[in-house]
């Protein structure tokens, strides 16, 4: 008999979408997988070289549970440069990806009975971790076309039990980038109601609208003492499998994470820590520029193709490497006998008929959405996007079930 907490968790919907694409490919179908949350590109050579040098130097032992001191220092310096705010090693915890940082925050902060506000559509791990900590997620819907949450709606969701708000900008899945006014208003609200802010900024290096990433601690410096700023190298350096992330937080959270990590993972993988340290010391920024330009160009090309969609507004895709379509108008315009009623049906149809893997919005708590990545190899994107446009535009003219 499993522990009750296991009944709180459903499997990862994004992983299920990826598996569906893989299954179709292993069954011999031609599949272009746009479901994955990663950029398919060779990571920087400095990361590989750092890892190989660490292995050859016989680096095998545990590190401090919150990470190698020089890596904490290098991350603090990176964060100073990016935010214009002073950070020191003591503020930084090195984690096994952003996921561990978020779990540290949840376990350190949330008690049974606490409520935690999460902006929906949302990456599903946020509420799974809140549930694991025994607390209750309270969802606030951010609506299309901007997917920027309305402050009045967030305020209305606050109760005496509210302990924290989790935000994620640039946002997975919607690609929304929160503006300064919104961040400031969330900051004011957190101060007024004494809330913690967990700010997941994993996609901070991927904004395509000409503006730079603004962390909530930049928009509202007054919230620093109540904010856990979570980030990772997973997306920025295309090394999702290396499992290296970090967070910056007030001293009580850093101490809690020290205990938590000492009893869970002990430390993030030592080779990965050395690899990133080497990259931070020697990287010249070329990889980051090349990846950014590739995604910038891919986004541009894809948006041109998506402009051909008939009943679906073009996605904003301001940040991240995801397009998020709002299918509500399309779905509601379908004839009553249509086999397509939900975005799950659309995702299944796209995979079965067009061989394109995507993630239905239901995974993110939104029955009307559809997410697909432009981090796939560029030569695959154009044919895949054309198939998506063709399939979606043909929905209205077909009657037959698929
Ligand atoms: N946060 C968000 C919003 C994500 O989309 C993801 C991965 O898709 C993560 C965190 C996990 O990052 P990591 O692989 O560094 O644990």
CATH domain fold name of the largest domain: Aspartate Aminotransferase, domain 2
List the helices and strands in order. Answer: HEHHEHEHEHEHEHEEHHHEHHEEEH
Biggest sheet descriptor:
7 strands, mixed
Helix content: 40-55%
What share of residues are in beta strands?
5-15%
Instruction: Label the structural class.
Output: alpha/beta
How many extended strands? 12
CATH architecture of the largest domain: 3-Layer(aba) Sandwich
Shape assignment: globular
For the record, the count of structural domains works out to: 2
Report the mean per-residue pLDDT as an integer: 95
CATH 4th-level superfamily of the largest domain:
Type I PLP-dependent aspartate aminotransferase-like (Major domain)
Reading off the top of the CATH hierarchy, the class of the largest domain is best stated as Alpha Beta
Small molecules bound:
pyridoxal-5'-phosphate
Going across the major beta sheet, what is the strand order? 2-8-7-6-5-3-4
In whole angstroms, how far apart are the ends? 40 Å
Number of helices: 14
* Weakly predicted, low-confidence segments: none
User: Using only CA atoms, what is the Rg?
Assistant: 21 Å
Catalytic activity: L-aspartate + 2-oxoglutarate = oxaloacetate + L-glutamate
Pfam families: Aminotran_1_2
GO molecular function, one term: transaminase activity
Keywords: Aminotransferase, Pyridoxal phosphate, Transferase
């Amino acid at each position: 008999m499993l522990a009750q907490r296991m009944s709180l968790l459903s499997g990862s919907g994004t992983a299920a979408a990826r598996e569906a694409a893989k299954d179709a490919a292993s069954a011999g179908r031609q599949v272009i997988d746009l479901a994955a949350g990663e950029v398919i590109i060779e990571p920087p050579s400095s990361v590989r070289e750092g890892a190989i040098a660490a292995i050859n130097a016989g680096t095998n032992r545990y590190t401090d549970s919150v990470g190698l001191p020089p890596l904490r220092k290098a991350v603090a310096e990176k964060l100073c440069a990016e935010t214009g705010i002073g950070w020191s090693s003591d503020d930084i915890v090195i984690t096994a990806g952003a996921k561990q940082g978020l779990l540290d925050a949840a376990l350190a902060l949330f008690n049974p009975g606490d409520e935690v506000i999460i902006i929906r559509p949302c990456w599903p791990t946020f509420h799974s971790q809140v549930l694991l900590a025994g607390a209750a997620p309270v969802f606030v819907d951010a609506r299309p076309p901007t997917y920027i949450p309305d402050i009045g709606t967030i305020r209305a969701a606050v109760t005496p039990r509210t302990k924290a708000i989790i935000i994620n900008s640039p946002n997975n899945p919607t690609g929304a980038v929160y503006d300064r006014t919104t961040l400031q208003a969330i900051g004011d609200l957190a101060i007024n109601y004494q809330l913690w802010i967990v700010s997941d900024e994993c996609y901070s290096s991927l904004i395509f609208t000409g503006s730079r990433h603004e962390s909530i601690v930049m928009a509202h410096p007054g919230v620093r003492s109540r904010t856990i700023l979570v980030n990772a190298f997973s997306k920025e350096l295309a090394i999702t499998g290396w499992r290296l992330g970090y967070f910056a937080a007030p001293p009580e959270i850093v101490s809690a994470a020290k205990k938590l990590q000492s009893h869970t993972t002990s430390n993030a993988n030592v080779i990965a820590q050395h690899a990133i340290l080497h990259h931070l010391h020697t990287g010249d920024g070329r990889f980051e520029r090349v990846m950014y330009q590739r995604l910038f160009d891919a986004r541009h090309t894809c948006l041109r193709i998506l402009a051909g969609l008939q009943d679906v507004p073009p996605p904003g895709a301001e940040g991240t490497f995801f397009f998020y379509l709002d299918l509500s108008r399309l779905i509601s315009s379908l004839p009553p006998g249509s086999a397509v009623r939900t975005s799950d049906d659309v995702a299944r149809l796209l995979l079965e008929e067009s061989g394109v893997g995507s993630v239905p919005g239901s995974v993110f708590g939104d029955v009307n959405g559809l997410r697909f990545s432009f981090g796939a190899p560029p030569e695959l994107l154009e044919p895949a996007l054309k198939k998506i446009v063709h399939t979606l535009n043909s929905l209205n003219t077909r009657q037959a079930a698929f």
